[in-house]
Every structure is written in C-alpha cells, then in structure tokens.
C-alpha cells in the first residue's frame, strides 16, 4: 500500500478509530506535535492508539470531510473537518473539529506528525 493509500484509509475508511491499523501505520518512535485548544501536546504511538480506542467508545460513527490533500515526497498534508455521530443521536453528524495535519513517513510508516486543530 502506498503512503497516499494509507492516509486515505486512515481518513476515508475510519482508520482513525482502528487501533490495529494504527499500530501498523505508526513507526515505533512516532511523535505527534499537536497545537489544539488545550495548548501544545506531544503524543507518542501509545497515546494515539489510546485516543483511537476512546474515539471508538465515545462515538457511533466518524467521518473526515477532506478539503485538501497534498503529497510531496515523504510528506502528506491533509486539511479536513472531523464529524461524528453520538450514541444519543446516531443519525446526525456533528462537526467536532477543523484540522490541518502534516504527516512524515519513514520506512513506509508515519514517523512524525504536526497538527493544528480547533473545535467547532
């Protein structure tokens, strides 16, 4: 699978909530530098896998509405809106965040991420 195909699966096939897929996708030395509404957070592979499990528990469905997808060598930039459905209202998608992320690949795995998000 190409790097592009991996990122497309991550966002278009709900790979963001798939801990098995993330374990294969992320390099063992993975680090995410995330500027969020809570300030700057650095997350490692285990943190992301825990976040995936949390997202799966808290939301019935998850949808990434991608507006920009740019690939250059070992980097992929994605701009998207993250929408989810809740247990209380499983038929209505609600926007929870607007995100821009840069993924850097090494040896066919994501080694680094730089993400900026803001809640809706």
UniProtKB/TrEMBL annotation:
Name assigned to this protein: Nuclear transport factor 2 family protein
InterPro entries listed in its UniProt record: NTF2-like_dom_sf, SnoaL-like
Taxonomic source organism: Flavobacterium proteolyticum
Residues in the signal sequence: none
A Pfam match: SnoaL_2
UniProt domain SnoaL-like: residue ranges: 23-111
